[in-house]
Write a structure and sequence with these properties.
Mean pLDDT: 83
Oligomer: single chain
Shape: flat
Structural class: alpha+beta
Helix content: 10-25%
Strand order of the largest sheet: 2-1-9-4-3
Largest sheet: 5 strands, mixed
Length: 159
């Protein structure tokens, strides 16, 4: 019943993937998409995460508007797991059909033991940084600081 947990930060546009043990994954079972989970569950004190989606062990996506844990075949026009149908003609461009319903298999919005991956986003940040800065980012900050210092030194002082 171990899950893969994808944590994304909407502010920095970065993500991190963790492998949860059975003990860490138990509090997630029974939760629905949109619920908030405290970070203490996965040893990240101070953080709060919102469940945004996931997929089961066969790769079928979880859908927010479908209650339960079961996999169901639904008729849908748009949303999670649905792509617009296209048709190619030999010389013409691609046409996209609107309003065509597709029958797709999707998983319900509740996390169960069949879930393989859970997607969460950070709602509240804790004290510890979740993402370490890479060497490129550190060099970038250093060069930006040097440029700012040079600009301040070269500006003539007005009297």
């Amino acid at each position: 019943m171990a899950f893969k947990l994808n944590i994304s930060d909407p502010e920095t546009k970065r993500s991190k993937q963790l492998e949860l043990t059975d003990d860490q994954s138990r509090p997630f079972v029974g939760r629905k998409i949109g619920m908030v989970v405290k970070g203490e569950v996965i040893d990240m004190t101070g953080y709060e995460f919102e469940i945004t989606g996931g997929s089961d062990k066969a790769g079928f996506p979880m859908r927010k508007d479908l209650p339960g844990t079961a996999r169901k075949k639904i008729l849908a026009v748009k949303g999670t797991g649905i792509h617009r149908m296209t048709k190619r003609n030999k010389k013409k461009k691609i046409r996209k059909f609107r309003g065509i319903k597709q029958r797709k298999s999707v998983r319900g919005n509740t996390i169960s033991s069949d879930t393989a991956q859970i997607n969460v986003k950070i709602v509240k940040k804790g004290k510890q940084p979740l993402f370490e800065e890479t060497q490129k980012e550190e060099k970038k900050k250093e060069t930006e600081d040097e440029i700012v210092k040079e600009k301040n030194e070269t500006k003539p002082k007005e009297e």
